[in-house]
Design goal:
The complex is a heterodimer of chains A (247) and B (355). By secondary structure, chain A is of the alpha/beta class. Chain A has helices at residues 23-37, 71-81, 93-99, 101-109, 150-153, 159-163, 180-198, 213-216, 220-234, and strands at 43-47, 62-65, 86-92, 115-120, 123-124, 130-131, 169-176, 203-209, 238-241. In chain A, helix 1 (23-37) packs across helix 7 and helix 3 packs across helix 4 (101-109). The longest helix of chain A is centred in the C-terminal third of the chain and has 19 residues, at 180-198. Chain A is globular, with a radius of gyration of 17 Å. Chain A starts with 22 loop residues before the first helix and ends in a 6-residue tail after the last strand. Chain B has helices at 9-19, 34-46, 57-69, 80-85, 87-96, 122-126, 144-161, 171-175, 216-236, 256-271, 289-293, 312-320, 339-353, and strands spanning 4-8, 24-27, 50-53, 74-78, 100-108, 114-117, 137-139, 164-170, 177-181, 208-209, 240-243, 250-253, 276-281, 283-285, 302-306, 326-330. With 355 residues, chain B is of the alpha/beta class. In chain B, the strands form three sheets. In chain B, strands 2, 3, 4, 5, 6, 7, 8 and 14 form an eight-stranded mixed β-sheet that branches. The chains are: A alpha/beta (247), B alpha/beta (355). The interface between A and B is large, with 37 and 41 residues.
Amino acid sequence: MPKRLHPKSLENTIMHYCPGCSHGIAHRVIAEVIDELGIEGKIVGIASVGCSYNNYLYFKFDMQQAAHGRAPAVATGVKRVHPENVVFTYQGDGDLAAIGTAEIIHAAARGEKITTIFINNAIYGMTSGQMAPTTLIGQVTTTSPLGRDTSLQGFPLKMSEILSQIDGAVFVERVSMHDVKHILSAKRAIKKAFKVQMAGLGFSIVEVLSTCPTNWRLSPVDSAKWVEDNMMEYYKLGNYKGAELEV
Amino acid sequence: MPKKVLIKGNEAIGEAIIRAGCRHYFGYPITPQNELTNYMSKYMPEAGGVFIQAESEIAAINMVYGAAGAGARAITSSSSPGISLKQEGISYIAGAEVPAVVVNVMRCGPGLGGIMPGQSDYFQAVKGGGHGDYRNIVLAPNNGQELYELTVKAFDLADKYRVLVMVMADGALGQMMENVEFKDKETPYKIDKPWATTGSGMKRKKNYITSVYINPDELEAVNIRLQAKYKEIEKEEVLFEETDCEGADIIICAYGLAARITRNVMKLAAEESIKVGLLRPITLWPFPKDAVGSLADKTDVIMSVELSAGQMVEDVRLAVNGKKPVHFYGRTGGNLPTQKEILNEIKRVLEKEVK
């Protein structure tokens, strides 16, 4: 059996995430990318509010914890002090697409040389499964118990499409982590997003379609299928901007 | 720039920021502090620093948190309604023990209130403002020179204790032009920040900055440490100015603009053989409670004069602790108390209290 290689940028510890949740995979992929780019010494991450609020305990590099939605503003401060560093935010959908819409839009508009990893699982995981700005139409949550009704609760936000309209955002891609093939392509996108930042080109973001088996009330296996059958239908995977960039 | 210049208060703060070695300013427009943001947009880049006009006061304070967390001296400025928006960030900065400076050029409230000078943010500044058990050092300048010097001092105090320091001016001080001497220190205050998120450079273990502790024992330990630090600050950093208090008929407690008006009242009163003393807190927190408490031994009547409906007077009463009567006089809405009004109030109070 091949030896399981542990990324240097990831602590060898137990994470608190639920079985079948995408956070653990996303953490590992980010850590692998940082290792491969050899930037462990100059990466600074910004943790946000949500299930990943304390991921500075899991990553093995400098991090700063931010208030709900404010990670892009905090990252802006960190990056402007040390422009040579590589700075990223790790944000969920409530954080980025509800309370933090102003911060993400304007970090992108400034062309802030940071990278955002946007975990979109269509629900508020940490607070017990409330409706998120990205909750799908008809999706049942603890605050849309009859399913999201567009006449009452409006429409899910397509953040990659929105952000790709902003000139300062130079690399925008939506990926998924529900199977190995997609995880590998997600890793390529995350690596490119960091490289875009390192080349000083502007703001980069990777939206990651993710699972939340606990709050979706599904098994891990069914959750992966739910991403494919439902989320990928509304949130089309692919590059929205910057595919042509050679970095 | 010549050593002594005629300059607007807001711009004197700007010059202090640059001369304090701060190279990161994050602002958002609001009256009556706009000259400061404008000044920074020109002179900060000239000094090789960073100026960002943020998308909101909330973003600006969080940029300060990021920049200060990464080891830089960082500042934001605003006025009352904008300072309310910053309270979330201020609480986080206190919890994470990141040194930062915030300038509040106060206007009057509540709500959008008005753009004229006020002192009605005293409670917000010294009693918390945001959530949780924390304190900010609060400095209250009363002229252009102090706007300059206390802003420089704010950075030193922030770095010394890893706390947020607020400079509390008001719209009148910010807009007024006065002679200011830009005294530069011989040896700038320098401090290592081994805790900062600078990137490890592979030379040390990771640093992380946070204010969240799910484990109650861990969070209580943080609170105990914070309270110990605040006690130390209360012991070491109290600043006030006492004028003619010995044997005074009445002593006025006033800070900032209200103290300046009171100084003229003292001359007016002297013409009528009324001896008025002045105790001017320069640090609103830590409040000069021993100095204010001992006023009871020096006079029979104490009065707090403020551009508010009565906020600092609560701390004056706590310090005097019932030993002598404490009165209050203030104006709100952006109106300033006139010297005559204050003198009349002094006479009324003395008639009532001194038999």
